[in-house]
Amino acid sequence: MKKGMLLMLMGPSGSGKNTLKAHIEKVFGDKLSFVTSYTSRAPRPGEIEGKTYHYVSRGEFETMRDAGKFIESAEYGGNYYGIPLDAVQDALKNGNILFREIEHKGYQQIKAAVSHDQYRLIFVDGGDWEHLKRRILGRAPMSENELALRKESYNIEMALKHEADAVIVNEDGKVAAAERAIESVVRDMIGK
């Protein structure tokens, strides 16, 4: 039986990880598995229960978290988000390749729960903070407080870059090169 693996994509805000994630899903979608996360936030228009998220109350989420039902969980913007442990374990046991975008707190939790032979970390490096700050502000206005939080996350994630199994450099105007690079890395990692 083939061995399952959790592929994680991490990078600072503004690094282009969402673009690269969409590319990987398009190219390898039939070879990858996806686990639906849980959240305590209300569904937004167009979101589908069980596909976008599993929607639960804060109390239900806290009960699940306290019972060890998540491999990774965090709170963002007053809402909880978590990846169900049983779904990840089942997928890995069945030889599936899971693909997840992750942030630094989630990576640390997963790293503590899963042996390295069952996961790989791909890091997206979009450049220095000033460069990413321009990208971030070019997408939408942001308060100084929000920007400070993004910079703090940037510093933490850049400090973890050396732990990545692969680093993809995503420079402005060179998205196609970054897409080719990550496609090659993923192909090598999953053996297809």
Automatic annotation (TrEMBL):
Gene3D superfamilies: Guanylate Kinase phosphate binding domain, P-loop containing nucleotide triphosphate hydrolases. This is Guanylate kinase. It holds the Pfam family Guanylate_kin. InterPro entries: GK/Ca_channel_bsu (IPR008145), Guanylate_kin-like_dom (IPR008144), Guanylate_kinase_CS (IPR020590), P-loop_NTPase (IPR027417). CDD domains: GMPK (cd00071). Belongs to the guanylate kinase family. Keywords: Kinase, Transferase. GO terms for molecular function: GMP kinase activity. One of its GO terms (cellular component) is cytosol. Its EC number is 2.7.4.8. PROSITE patterns: GUANYLATE_KINASE_1, GUANYLATE_KINASE_2. Residues 4-187 form the Guanylate kinase-like domain.
